[in-house]
Amino acid sequence: MTDKVAKLVIGDQTHEFPILSGSVGPEVMDIRSLYAKTGLFTYDPGFTSTAACDSAITYIDGDKGELLYRGYPIEQLAEKSNYLEVCYLLLYGELPTKTQFREFEKLVTNHTMVHEQMHYFYRGFRRDAHPMAIMTGVVGAMAAFYHDSTDINDPRQREIASIRMIAKIPTLAAMAYKYSVGQPFVYPRNDLDYASNFLHMCFSVPAEEYKVDPRIARAMDLIFTLHADHEQNASTSTVRLSGSSDANPFACIAAGVACLWGPAHGGANEACLNMLREIGTVDRIPEFIERAKDKNDPFRLMGFGHRVYKNFDPRAKVMQATAKEVLAILGVENNPTLQVAQELERIALEDQYFIDRKLYPNVDFYSGVILDAIGFPTSMFTVLFAVARTVGWISQWKEMIGDPQKKIGRPRQLYNGATARDYQPIASR
Length: 429
Fold this sequence. Notes:
This protein is 51% helix and 6% strand. It is mainly alpha-helical. The protein has two domains: 5-51, Single Sheet (Rubrerythrin, domain 2), CATH 2.20.28; 82-406, Citrate Synthase, domain 1. The strands form two sheets. The protein has a three-stranded antiparallel β-sheet. Helix 9 (214-226) packs antiparallel against helix 14 (314-330). It starts with a strand and ends in a 28-residue tail after the last helix. One of its GO terms (molecular function) is citrate synthase activity. Pathway: Carbohydrate metabolism; tricarboxylic acid cycle; isocitrate from oxaloacetate: step 1/2. Keywords: Transferase, Tricarboxylic acid cycle. One of its GO terms (biological process) is tricarboxylic acid cycle.
């Protein structure tokens, strides 16, 4: 809180509104009393200039290219930490001690199995169903199987629900993948770390032994870490809005999954890979570069630039090095899509057109390339995003539920429809 106020002059009346300060970032004008004082609403489509809540979880400075989880720079966490440690940090506000981490890791590991009857859910979907369609359904259905942790007023139940989702959603995601390719479900293994276990559930088959490459597992863990939370984006805001009605946590996370499915949000890395495949071969890149520069051509390069980060995406810098490592391990010699990605990246970093407009490869570009190289189909990309973002959604949901200022979300509108009119019987129309 500051002593500063904002003055709004309407006609001959002046109204004052307090200016609030957070620990870092822009100050905000508190307009909660705006309608009561003036009879006016604000008009802010997309809520791009509106702070809908206060939060202590994630901070972004788009101009500086800065992303902090609980105050820790994403670059440091990516280099020195791992996904489960980041989960603990987001959930509880501080990094765990060794003992706390061991207990947390054990708790998550021991809850990775899902109720056996959930298998029947999958059999009800068409074989060619999009994995995100399946995930939207089965995540919401968790409330039917784990109704002992749906009371949001019970802190213990909120905690159990949080652990269950972090532990079980990777299992559900792997099952969605296995179902889509017609292979049997693979049960989780408690002797594997979080990322390795996920890869094992996705790619192992009963016919032969599958060994997870620790370097690939590390890349997977890194992707999870970089996507764990991203402030009040569309899906997180959806989770908060759903939760504001006191809906159960599984329903709230399912709502987040549904929102994430949109190509403008979680589907961006899938769109990026589809673009690389449309380009096809390295020799066609100049043609598409020229199309991207042509204002009259509807073609747009996916995976470049970012709505929030005006200079560079800090996650992309981390992911860039990982992409190079993964491609070196798995090779790109026989993969035209990855060859196109490498050449397109080189051109974008050197071409003055891209440099002037700050169109650098973003995290979606690199994550799509990595996931494709590992062997995931593009239909799974958004699912993997959902797995990673689950902890962010849960952390935001828990924070909101514990906020004494919590209110049900109720945006207003600028109405421009018909004014009041009388009904005319159909015979006279």
